[in-house]
């Protein structure tokens, strides 16, 4: 008998696929409000126990359905004295950061009489602006003021986030001065140049139909959706275009 004939036949193990069949997954498009969607985004992208700085905390609507104590929340806002472009946090000290500044140029106009959110829209001003939100000195005008605020805040977010940290940005596109401004594209492009990887994107659709007070002729689609963009901080020296999604381990 040869040696080969004596060798035991290799055991062929059946390959077992892991995971469970389910439809209970987080979807990229959602009809509802910020308070419904935000906790699902956190659950998917930010591990329990993470230090999360919400730098435009406003009225804390995002956090209404987040179980208390799940994250270590550092809440701040311009209306309580902290500009998201100059945070008090140390370099590389937070795991995740949430940014939701005013997304419409009308809310950033310097003069109160021409600023958005007048009369019956006062609630809008209260929610989106909270008494702060002017463009900084030297900032751009009109839509550029909106973009400058997002980009300057993202630069500061990059400083305080640790490597591979998560940045969640809320935004909405706008038509400003008869120009279609795809803010979410501008933010993705601007943040890629800063060293952020676009890890996920959520579309939030308003459940009710927005009304129009005085319509003469419709030119652009009326926007009834907004975005949550999820970025990950690519360590300095690495190419964001080659970065792959990786887990964020708190305290790692
Ligand atoms: C859309 S609201 C945020 C709503 C908030 N996410 C919530 O859940 O209630 C925008 C907020 O950005 C704040 N804000 C505007 N400019 C800011 C700045 N430069 N730094 C920090 N906060 C700013 C406003 O005061 C306002 O509270």
Question: What does this entry show, briefly?
Answer:
The protein has 252 residues and is α/β, with parallel strands linked by helices. It has helices at residues 3-6, 34-45, 122-129, 143-160, 183-194, and strands at residues 29-31, 51-54, 72-75, 94-99, 161-171, 174-176, 179-181, 196-205, 225-233.
CATH superfamily: Vaccinia Virus protein VP39
Indicate the radius of gyration in whole angstroms: 23 Å
CATH C-level class is: Alpha Beta
For this structure, the CATH topology is: Rossmann fold
Helix content: 10-25%
Total domain count? 1
- Ligands bound to this protein structure: S-adenosylmethionine
Termini gap: 58 Å
Mean pLDDT: 87
Task: Return residue spans where pLDDT drops below 50 for at least 5 consecutive residues.
Answer: 130-138
Beta-sheet strand percentage? 15-25%
Protein name: DNA modification methylase
InterPro entries: SAM-dependent_MTases_sf (IPR029063)
GO biological process, one term: methylation
GO molecular function: methyltransferase activity
Descriptive terms for the model:
252 residues, binds S-adenosylmethionine, transferase, single chain, alpha/beta, 21% strand, 21% helix, 5 helices, Rossmann fold, methyltransferase
Textual characterization of the structure:
The chain is 21% helix and 21% strand. It is α/β, with parallel strands linked by helices. Helix 4 runs parallel beside helix 5. The longest helix is centred in the middle third of the chain and has 18 residues. It has one domain: Rossmann fold, CATH 3.40.50. A hairpin with a 2-residue loop joins strand 6 and strand 7. The protein is built from five helices and nine strands. The chain is globular and about 90 Å long. A seven-stranded mixed β-sheet has the order 1-8-9-5-4-2-3, with helices on both faces. A two-stranded antiparallel sheet has the order 6-7. Bound molecules: S-adenosylmethionine. The site of S-adenosylmethionine has 22 residues, from helix 3.
